[in-house]
């Protein structure tokens, strides 16, 4: 009986894991993900295409904010005005291109999939947490980090020629580091909600 019970429990675990498979080829199946309310009558690629773009956006977003933080700190440590000015300029540019582009992809594809496939993202725990954590990170980025970076870039252009780095740059750098770290930790925590999808 104990062996049979163990087998039953194992079968239930496999069944639970199988329910998290989004699509089964050429079959009518429930979506199986928490938050799905519809049934797919015929498999199409819209969900998988949007999901792939969603992952691409996450790679762009997370990759850029982590790497940018690293090489900005390394540039500042050199205390070399020319190196710092160049790095600061690139921080601002890459944020607009990769961070901004990544966030746009994440939001567009995430909300698109939710609406196209009847996912109640505001009332489904893992989707709701993922959405609001991204919004909070975006607010920190838009309201604090971008303005700070913009001012730092202007100051850096000045001291690139003069060779003297003012205290204002370092004060702004400390603000950038504190809120930049926070804006990085929040989306990293989002990986838990997107991967494990707790109900």
Description:
This protein has 199 residues and is mainly α. The protein contains five helices and two strands, in the order H-E-E-H-H-H-H. Helix 2 runs antiparallel to helix 5 (167-196) and helix 4 packs antiparallel against helix 5. The longest helix is centred in the C-terminal third of the chain and has 38 residues, at 125-162. The radius of gyration is 22 Å and the shape is elongated. The two termini are 32 Å apart.
Name the shape in a single word: elongated
| H-E string | HEEHHHH
With strands numbered from the N-terminus, the spatial order across the biggest sheet is 1-2
Task: Give me the Rg, rounded.
Answer: 22 Å
Rounded mean pLDDT is 84
Major sheet size, sense and barrel closure: 2 strands, antiparallel
Which structural class is indicated by helix and strand composition? mainly alpha
Ranges with pLDDT <50 over ≥5 residues? 15-32, 38-43
Strand fraction: under 5%
What distance separates the N and C termini? 32 Å
Number of strands: 2
Q: Helix tally? A: 5
Overall helicity: over 70%
